[in-house]
């Protein structure tokens, strides 16, 4: 299907664009579509100001059939990654520090070794996932969704995406000219319930733990600027479900977290004498080595991971989200084993399910494939490739013409930690207005865009019990075509929503 969007976004006058920009940014400021300003360094200082999150002025056209299909397969992905996380032998082999990537990637190796040394006592795991896709146009001009990656830790921007979709609906409702193109119609603007979807996952976990008065622990980064995206989850937990949250950094938890009888996790709050029992540990930190500046930060993570509190994610579930796992799943027979082997769980899948997932994957291989073959192939195909290490959070990949020089400097022993992935080729000539805070009218630029759609899902699971899982909403991050990377937090992308075409 070709997206007929050469006239996107609708043509408006400069003064209409000015009015819309004012409506959009003031809506964002009034509705918690916010970021802390740059330079908000420490979580110990009390903020007095915020800026609106970077946003598009219009939703971006996405083929309805592809969007609905991506929503539908999320349930298969929820099951798949639960099954990967429950397969210790597979994770040892692929990510471990004796046989796998953990031998050459210090961060992966430490997490794996800590998990082995301090075994888990909680059999349940919670995943709040996000499967990311880009539109891919093949030679015939047909578009499909191709998967960029599958996130199992700190999948962010759910709540802010809900607000962005509402903001675009508000622009449509409040002006006559915004909807001058008939496609801009609420029936083509999918509702975004990601906030309540993600919270539903956390609530299932809290209830499964079995102590209503326990709290949910948010593990956060010091100086986090994306705090409002996290606060929305806290407010919803409190207001709709009467569940209280504690927010702590790993540094603070080094002192504030203790294990009590039966490995129950207790955390001291600043203002209370008594520590609180924790039902669920939700990580919005811990996915990068920067979050572990000292040995004791790792020890703290292992203490939490070995407690009775349900981990979102547990270390095995975090490891399951590695790019290396994504590549290994694409090898012949591996996906079939996870989905079709009846010993893996009571949920049943068929070949069609396998085919649907596989059809959304680009070619991938490990750089240590068959001696030098992995590197040789990457060198000869570099114009059409991205190389990825086992890292999250953006800014870690090597693209196209940077690849040969990078490979020149890559030690043979380090090849195993990298995968090569064919570049997805998004359709061209789709434009949108991107608005970033602080730029006045120069903060508004019209640019040729690439939009990455993320489908959220949650899964609460353990060995030998039925999984509780659901598709849980969506997000669109839009960047200028000239940037290889995505990522709102790292400044490349802006938040967007969907117009179904
Ligand atoms: P991270 O975990 O750091 O977010 P990603 O795999 O999502 O890593 O890569 C970061 C960004 O790089 C993506 O948001 C996307 O913009 C771009 N990217 C990644 N893989 C591809 C690909 N195969 N084709 C085109 N762009 C890609
Ligand atoms: Mg990503
Ligand atoms: Mg990621």
UniProtKB/TrEMBL annotation:
Its cofactor is Mg(2+). Keywords: ATP-binding, Glutathione biosynthesis, Ligase, Magnesium, Metal-binding, Nucleotide-binding. Pathway: Sulfur metabolism; glutathione biosynthesis; glutathione from L-cysteine and L-glutamate: step 2/2. Its EC number is 6.3.2.3. Pfam families: GSH_synth_ATP, GSH_synthase. InterPro entries: Glutathione_synthase (IPR005615), Glutathione_synthase_a-hlx (IPR014042), Glutathione_synthase_C_euk (IPR014709), Glutathione_synthase_N_euk (IPR014049), GSH-S_sub-bd_sf (IPR037013), GSH_synth_subst-bd (IPR004887), PreATP-grasp_dom_sf (IPR016185). SUPFAM superfamilies: Glutathione synthetase ATP-binding domain-like, PreATP-grasp domain. GO terms for cellular component: cytosol. Residues 215-320 form the Glutathione synthase substrate-binding domain. One of its GO terms (molecular function) is ATP binding. It catalyses: gamma-L-glutamyl-L-cysteine + glycine + ATP = glutathione + ADP + phosphate + H(+). Signal peptide: none annotated. Gene3D superfamilies: 3.30.1490.50, 3.30.1490.80, ATP-grasp fold, B domain (3.30.470.20), Glutathione synthase, substrate-binding domain superfamily, eukaryotic (3.40.50.1760), Glutathione Synthetase, Chain A, domain 3 (1.10.1080.10). PANTHER family: GLUTATHIONE SYNTHETASE. This is Glutathione synthetase.
């Amino acid at each position: 299907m070709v997206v007929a969007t050469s006239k996107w976004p609708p043509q408006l006058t400069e003064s209409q664009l000015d009015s819309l920009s004012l409506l959009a940014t003031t809506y964002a400021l009034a509705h918690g579509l916010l970021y802390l300003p740059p330079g908000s360094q420490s979580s110990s200082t009390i903020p007095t100001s915020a800026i609106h999150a970077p946003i598009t002025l219009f939703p971006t056209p996405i083929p309805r059939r592809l969007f609905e299909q991506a929503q539908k397969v999320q349930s298969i992905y929820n099951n798949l990654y639960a099954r990967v996380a429950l397969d210790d032998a597979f994770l040892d082999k692929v990510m471990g520090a004796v046989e796998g990537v953990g031998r050459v990637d210090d961060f992966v190796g430490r997490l794996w070794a800590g998990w082995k040394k301090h075994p888990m006592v909680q059999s349940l795991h919670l995943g709040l996932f996000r499967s990311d896709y880009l539109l891919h146009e093949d030679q015939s001009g047909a578009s499909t969704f191709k998967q960029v990656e599958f996130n199992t830790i700190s999948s962010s921007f759910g709540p802010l995406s809900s607000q962005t979709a509402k903001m675009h609906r508000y622009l449509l409702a409040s002006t006559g000219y915004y909807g001058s193109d008939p496609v801009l119609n609420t029936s083509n603007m999918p509702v975004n319930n990601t906030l309540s979807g993600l919270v539903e996952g956390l609530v299932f976990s809290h209830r499964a733990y079995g102590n209503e008065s326990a709290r949910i622990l948010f593990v956060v980064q010091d100086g986090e600027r994306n705090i409002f995206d996290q606060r929305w989850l806290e407010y919803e937990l409190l207001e709709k479900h009467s569940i209280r949250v504690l927010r702590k950094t790993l540094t603070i938890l080094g002192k504030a977290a203790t294990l009590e009888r039966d490995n129950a996790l207790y955390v001291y709050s600043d203002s209370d004498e008594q520590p609180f029992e924790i039902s669920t540990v939700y990580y919005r930190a811990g996915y990068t080595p920067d979050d572990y500046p000292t040995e004791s930060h790792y020890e703290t993570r292992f203490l939490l991971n070995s407690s009775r509190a349900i981990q979102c994610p547990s270390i095995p579930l975090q490891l399951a989200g590695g790019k290396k796992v994504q590549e290994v799943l694409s090898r012949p027979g591996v996906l079939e084993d996870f989905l079709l082997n009846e010993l893996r769980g009571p949920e049943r899948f068929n070949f069609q399910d396998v085919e649907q997932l596989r059809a959304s994957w680009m070619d991938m291989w490990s750089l240590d494939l068959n001696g030098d073959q992995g590197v040789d192939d990457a060198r000869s195909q570099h114009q059409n490739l991205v190389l990825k290490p086992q890292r999250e959070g953006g800014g870690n990949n090597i693209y196209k013409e940077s690849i040969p020089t990078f490979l020149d400097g890559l030690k043979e022993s380090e090849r195993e930690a990298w995968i090569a992935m064919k570049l997805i080729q998004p359709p061209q000539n789709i434009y949108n207005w991107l608005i970033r805070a602080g730029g006045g009218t120069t903060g508004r630029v019209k640019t040729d865009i690439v939009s990455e759609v993320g489908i959220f899902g949650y899964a609460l699971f353990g060995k030998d019990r039925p999984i509780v899982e659901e598709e849980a909403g969506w997000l669109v991050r839009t960047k200028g075509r000239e940037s290889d990377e995505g990522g709102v937090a790292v400044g490349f992308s802006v938040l967007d929503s969907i117009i179904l075409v």
